[in-house]
Amino acid sequence: MRQRFAKILATLGPASRAPDTMRLLSDVGVDAFRLNFSHGTHDDHRANIEAIRRIEAQTGRAIAIVADMQGPKLRVGEMDFEGSGGLELRYGDTVRLRRGDESDGTDIVHPHAELEQILEPGLILKFDDGKLQVTMVSDTEARVDVPGLLQSRKGINVVNKVLPMSAMTPKDERDMQFAMDNGADWIALSFVQTARDVMDARKVIDAHPKASGTGIIVKIEKPSAVEDLHSILSMADAAMVARGDLGVELPLERVPVVQRQIIRKGRELGKPVIVATHMLESMIDAPTPTRAEASDVATAIYQGADAVMLSAETAVGRHPATAVAIMDRIITAAESDPILWEYFYQTELPHEGSAEDAISQSVKTIARTMGAKAVFGYTKSGSTVARISRERPPCRIIGLTPSRRAASQMALIWGAHAVLTDDPSGFDAMAEHVQTLARDVGLDTGDRILISAGVPFGVPGTTNTLKIDTVA
Hints:
This protein has three domains: 7-71 and 167-336, Alpha-Beta Barrel (TIM Barrel), CATH 3.20.20.60; 81-159, Beta Barrel (M1 Pyruvate Kinase, Domain 3), CATH 2.40.33; 351-470, Pyruvate kinase, C-terminal domain (Pyruvate Kinase, Chain: A, domain 1, 3-Layer(aba) Sandwich), CATH 3.40.1380. The protein is elongated. By secondary structure, the chain is α/β, with parallel strands linked by helices. Helix content is 38%, strand content 22%. The strands form four sheets. The protein has an eight-stranded parallel barrel, surrounded by seven helices. Strands 6-5-9-8-7-11 form a six-stranded mixed β-sheet. 42% of the residues are buried.
């Protein structure tokens, strides 16, 4: 078992796609790998998936595979008029926007009919990751607020407006089908604006013969998604705080506040939350992070994030394994702080009137009172482990499941360590089985443990039993 509770999600890329490097990343702390479908071919991603599953088999440790969809990308057209390099936007000038493929040297062109439909006075558009900004003064003209050179194919961000377009493009649907065909555990959905986007993705997953149980991670990167957070996260299985795009469309000072809100909502609903983007950005080149970056990672842990993510640091960085090792050290240090656990103990969460919630809440209290070292939870889908995890008990959570997919998905759940195993035949067999597993995961004679299960065994959604035991 890992000696920490929060998980590390690492992005694969040219710097890390060699099988030996993946194994090294897993050994130094990676719990889940992200496949970025904005880059690479299906053959590349298939090779990565096969390598990850080999590492799983070699180490006996479940690893989650996250297939991250590109989503729709709004971009300007060809702006390099007669070798100009782009259109120079000057502060206070008025510039025309039109649908088209090539600028005439005086206007901003774009190929998107959906964007044309929503242009209206007062609408704010940002270009090139927020480096330039205009405000519409009519349906076709805009005032330049933040000047600069607008080059071809740079991205467009629409601030505070829901675009009349789906979160899934035809490319995304093809990529989702490929990811599900090859056994990805999670689909990360980009450009989510409303709960309808999650429903559309769920239909695609439900229609796939191999995708039963595939989880949906909603990437929260649009202000409209923040406003509809409860509905969106209620329909999804996990969330990612995509701070890059979120920081473009929201004022920068709002991003830390929104990050905390998303983490809090995820815990309330029992859905894992991943904090992503620029966590150890300087380590793309440098062998050590800045003190501010270390503090940023620790802050996510103090707020209760289930996982933190490395992007370019492991995809194209010069020190991928070192970045993972340093992130592991930062998480471990934060989790050794008693203040973190006091925060977890004092946080009030809403509870349903169900046996599962009552048992999950009791696990935290009993584990703290008796100093239990681990709770063993029998689960089909992983939902029991997720409910226990949201309580943040001060002990390891051992998820016992017959489902390979559920085991791999637990690699993104705070505190969870998955063990693939069959359901016990009866109560006595369960107790004996857990005794064996307790020794396998490194517990010592005399350690207090808890066992959560559903009777009758093997029936999903019947968690109704909590047993206190001691490792013999």
